[in-house]
């Protein structure tokens, strides 16, 4: 008889649960489903020809080197290329000792948890916020304290009061986690004034800010916003970036920029996990950036995603019943829908799937499980001709649900 090892699991393992988005993606892999669920780039955006050329050159020039183990902190050529690019695009200076390459942003979040979090520590996050971030922090038995996300980003008045409330109970706050530009899941951005105030609040209460920035280069309209890191004068911003949205997620290349003591601890925390990030992928990314491929490619995908965003916004405006509202993002990958009070996006999802269309339920992005009448749509992955059809299917599901609940005249 096989043993059941469940009694041997650590307390940390007992608290693990599957990501709702990852589980939903299994379902939406069915070919007849129109999926607005996963935060996926379009496969048509991947620079296959350029990557093929770069790989061939790497194999010819130094195949034995790029297929070897690398250092934990990352390939030197990639870190140099990224630091130069961050100086140009994000407006801050950093040295080689300030950057570590990770296996995607998810590993960055995991390393932050390993380095900073003890059981019972408080982390301040948005409501809603990126689901996989709260899953990562919860793995280290942290407590999520949430602050509402509004049209212009995190509510700073609420944040200040929340911090004072926690401090009155003499509890530890380790950091504030924010996605300031084209936030996942809402698609909104924190204003310049909000960024400055966030830094001042963190300074006053001696807190770190974890700035997660996967989307800022996917701007389709409006004024560019400065990174919070570029305003940081005392090293309290830990900046995370990735090439997943502007090159290819399959390379699993991301980075963290922070003070030397923080990066050194992350290096030590990473070594027992994987020794080093995918070396070949790092060399591909380094060559892609250093040889000037990336900027023309980003311009190409901006145009591609702008068209997709506009198609979805147009379909929402034309097809959604009165009472359904949504955000109008200037960039990124997501549109956030709010259904009338009394509706439940989770139960409605089951009906949407029977109509062969899928989304992510909004309550998954709220640490306290609220937001029952909200949902997230991804506009970058679906084929253009499927966007209108998929929104039409969703609108029909919502209209029927509203009629059943007597909400059709809202």
Based on the structure, what is the oligomeric state of the protein chains? single chain
How many DSSP-defined strands? 14
What average pLDDT do the residues reach? 94
Strand order of the largest sheet: 2-9-8-7-6-3-4-5
Number of helix segments? 13
Task: Identify the overall geometry.
Answer: globular
Which architecture of the largest domain would the CATH scheme give at its second level?
3-Layer(aba) Sandwich
According to CATH, what is the topology of the largest domain?
A: Aspartate Aminotransferase, domain 2
Top-tier CATH class of the largest domain: Alpha Beta
How far apart are the first and last residues' alpha carbons, in Å? Answer: 60 Å
Provide the CATH superfamily of the largest domain: Type I PLP-dependent aspartate aminotransferase-like (Major domain)
What is the radius of gyration? 22 Å
Bin the helical content: 40-55%
> What low-confidence regions span 5 or more consecutive residues with pLDDT below 50?
none
SSE arrangement, N to C: HHEHHEHEHEEHEHEEEHHHEEHEEEH
What's the story with the biggest beta sheet?
Answer: 8 strands, mixed
Structural write-up:
Helix 3 (48-66) crosses helix 10, helix 4 crosses helix 10 and helix 5 (105-116) runs parallel beside helix 6. The protein is built from 13 helices and 14 strands. The protein is 43% helix and 14% strand. The protein folds into two domains: 5-47 and 296-403, Aspartate Aminotransferase, domain 1, CATH 3.90.1150.10; 68-292, Aspartate Aminotransferase, domain 2. By secondary structure, the chain is α/β, with parallel strands linked by helices. Strands 2-9-8-7-6-3-4-5 form an eight-stranded mixed β-sheet, with helices on both faces.
């Amino acid at each position: 008889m096989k043993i059941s090892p469940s009694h041997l699991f650590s307390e940390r393992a007992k608290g693990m649960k599957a990501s709702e988005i990852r589980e939903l993606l299994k379902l939406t892999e069915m070919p007849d489903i129109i999926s607005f669920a996963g935060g996926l780039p379009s496969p048509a955006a991947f620079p296959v020809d350029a990557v093929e050329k770069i790989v061939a050159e790497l194999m010819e020039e130094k195949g034995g080197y790029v297929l070897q183990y690398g250092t934990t902190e990352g390939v030197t050529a990639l870190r140099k290329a990224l630091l130069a690019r961050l100086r140009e695009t994000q407006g801050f200076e950093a040295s080689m000792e300030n950057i570590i390459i990770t296996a995607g942003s998810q590993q960055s979040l995991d390393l932050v948890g390993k380095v900073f979090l003890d059981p019972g520590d408080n982390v301040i996050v948005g409501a809603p916020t990126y689901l996989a971030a709260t899953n990562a922090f919860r793995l280290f038995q942290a407590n999520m304290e949430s602050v509402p996300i509004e049209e212009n980003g995190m509510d700073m008045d609420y944040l200040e009061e929340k911090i004072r409330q926690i401090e009155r109970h003499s509890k530890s706050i380790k950091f504030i986690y924010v996605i300031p530009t084209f936030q996942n899941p809402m698609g909104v951005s924190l204003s310049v004034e909000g960024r400055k105030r966030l830094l001042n609040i963190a300074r006053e209460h001696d807190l770190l800010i974890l700035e997660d920035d996967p989307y800022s280069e996917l701007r389709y309209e409006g004024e560019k916003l400065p990174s919070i890191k570029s305003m940081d004068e005392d090293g309290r911003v830990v900046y995370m970036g990735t090439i997943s949205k502007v090159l290819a997620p399959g390379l699993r290349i991301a980075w963290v920029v922070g003070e030397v003591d923080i990066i050194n601890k992350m290096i030590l925390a990473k070594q027992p996990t994987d020794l080093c990030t995918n070396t070949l992928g790092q060399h591909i990314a380094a060559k892609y950036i250093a040889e000037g491929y990336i900027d023309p490619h980003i311009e190409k995908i901006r145009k591609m995603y702008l068209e997709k965003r506009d198609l979805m916004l147009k379909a929402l405006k034309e097809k959604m019943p009165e009472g359904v509202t949504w955000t109008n993002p200037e960039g990124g990958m997501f549109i956030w829908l709010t259904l009338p009070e009394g509706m439940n996006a989770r139960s409605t999802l089951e009906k949407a799937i029977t109509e062969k269309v899928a989304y992510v339920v909004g309550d998954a992005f709220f640490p306290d499980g609220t937001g029952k009448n909200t949902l997230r749509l991804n506009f970058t992955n679906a084929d253009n001709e499927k966007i209108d059809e998929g929104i039409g299917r969703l609108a029909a599901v919502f209209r029927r649900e509203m009629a059943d609940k007597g909400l059709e005249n809202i």
